[in-house]
Specification:
- The complex is a heterodimer.
- Chain A is mainly β.
- In chain A, a hairpin with a 2-residue loop joins strand 6 and strand 7.
- In chain A, strands 2, 4, 5, 9, 10 and 11 form a six-stranded mixed β-sheet that branches.
- Helix content of chain A is 0%, strand content 58%.
- The chains are: A mainly beta, B mainly beta.
- At the A-B interface, strand 4, strand 5, strand 9 and strand 10 of A face strand 4, strand 5, strand 9 and strand 10 of B.
Amino acid sequence: SQQGEEDPQALSIQEGENATMNCSYKTSINNLQWYRQNSGRGLVHLILIRSNEREKHSGRLRVTLDTSKKSSSLLITASRAADTASYFCATDASGGSEKLVFGKGMKLTVNP
Amino acid sequence: ETGVTQSPTHLIKTRGQQVTLRCSSQSGHNTVSWYQQALGQGPQFIFQYYREEENGRGNFPPRFSGLQFPNYSSELNVNALELDDSALYLCASNYVGFGTDTQYFGPGTRLTVL
């Protein structure tokens, strides 16, 4: 079953704009990760935020986590055409399990 | 590049056949997980192997089985293929023990069952 739900399911923006995508999940987590997938190929890890962290930055990426609302957001600033991809949030459930539970993903299109 | 490779890239099988997919993990990674990703969906956890033993399984029938070898390679075997098994199969490896939770994914094997 899918744990996370990304919102919106699709987003189309112009190069240079910021893109924000949201993720909601259902159960307690150890951490939440964001992945990118190009054209149905492998997943590329973007950023991990632990349950005791509220915000994290990596280059043009900013992730927030609100465990009280069971939600996270990923902000990509100054988007580029190369950012066009599907983005997934994945949670690592608390309790020691290493399995990742993914949302259905969000398709981001950045127009040149 | 994640250092995780998978073979083959694409595979076409017919219903009822058996298939073996292969994954080569990053050197030193003691854990490998397999995921199934249907078109338009997020990956679904199949199972995980830790030091060559199954360490958790998702909601998949026993005809999905796996092996992990000491040389950082692993296999996913699917028997009695069904049409719904058509999907992208992803393996991911990581090292459990130093508190790092990032899983590194391979490029996937796209399986088509006719």
